[in-house]
C-alpha cells in the first residue's frame, strides 16, 4: 500500500468577479495507511495555504454517477464531462467544478494503491 497524491485544475463556481476560464490548483490525496476509506481534497485557502476536506472515497465515486452526499460534502455529475463537489463550512459554501476524468483517474490510482501485490 502506498499514498496517492494527484494535482488537478478546477474551477470555483461563484458569482464573484473572477475570470471564468481561471482554474485553481487542487490537491487530491489518499493515504490507505491513515484511513483506507477516505480521500482528501486540498483547496487554496484565503489565508494560510490550503484548506483540506476529508470525506468518504465511496461518496466521491457515487457522486460521479448520480447526486450523492449530505451535510458538509456533496458530489454530483455536471453534464457529460464535469463533476461538482460542494463543500459546506461555517464560513460558507465552496462549489468546485472538476473534469470527471481527473477524478476518475484519481479514484483508479487509489484502488491500485490498495490492490494486493501478486508475486
Order of helices and strands: EEEEHEEEEH
Low confidence ranges: none
Helix content: 10-25%
Number of domains: 1
N-to-C span: 15 Å
* Strand order, largest beta sheet: 4-3-2-1-8-7-6-5
- Principal-axis shape equals globular
Strand count: 8
Q: What's the helix count?
A: 2
Structure classification: alpha+beta
Rg computed from alpha carbons, rounded to a whole number of angstroms:
14 Å
Largest sheet: 8 strands, antiparallel
Instruction: Name the average pLDDT.
Output: 87
Q: Kindly provide the name of the CATH class.
A: Mainly Beta
Strand content: over 45%
Indicate the CATH topology. Answer: Transcriptional Co-activator pc4, Chain A
Instruction: Give the full name of the CATH homologous superfamily.
Output: Sporulation-specific cell division protein SsgB
> What CATH architecture do you see?
Roll
Briefly characterize the structure.
The chain is α+β, with helices and mostly antiparallel strands and 119 residues long.
Structure write-up:
This protein has 119 residues and is an alpha+beta fold. It has one domain (4-114): Transcriptional Co-activator pc4, Chain A (Roll). It contains 2 helices and 8 strands. It has helices at residues 57-63, 100-114; strands at residues 4-12, 24-30, 38-44, 50-56, 68-70, 73-78, 82-89, 92-99. Strands 4-3-2-1-8-7-6-5 form an 8-stranded antiparallel β-sheet. The longest helix is centred in the last third of the chain and has 15 residues, at 100-114. The protein starts with a strand and ends in a 5-residue tail after the last helix.
